[in-house]
Sequence to fold (194 residues):
Amino acid sequence: MRRSLSAILPTAALTLVASGCASTGTAPIESATATTQSTVRVDGGAAVYQAQLSHDDRATENDLTVSADRAFAILPAVYEEIGLKINTAISDSRVVGVNAARTRRIGKERLSRYLACGNDVTGNAIADAYAVTLTVLSRVSPSSPTGSLLSTQVIATATPMSVSGTTITCQSTGVLEALIAKTTTLRAVGAGAS
Fold:
């Protein structure tokens, strides 16, 4: 299920991601809008075309059969197993993730598996050919005494590396959110069995 999750990303993170800038900070997560605005500019020779685009950044939610505290304790190992190096962890909100990181791959996988940014003029996936700034944040909240809700939000932009050009807003394919939920569930079951 995908719903808007306005409290998972800081306003600063949305600004950094939308502008294509990287950040190594771990600012507290506060309320923020879940809409990203971007401008696409195309030089058509005799004319320049410009379009303003906006889309909702949605979080994917999954029910877990472990407590919120236990799921939160597992998440750093989940991110590491997938190949994401966390730079944000806020215990009060039970939020873990990667905030505005530059990356070329997630683990051994190409970014196009997780991000849809379109194709360049040669037909290559932009997610694999451009410089990508990625934010992936997961928040765990209690849903019952023994259950929890895992919300994961993925936001990314891609910028040409070799020439100047417009920053492109990417969409999540949903694969990364599903992988985080599945890996968290498997680790929780494994931890319970040991």
In short: DSSP finds four helices and twelve strands in the chain. Residues 1-36, 49-55 have pLDDT under 50 and may be disordered.
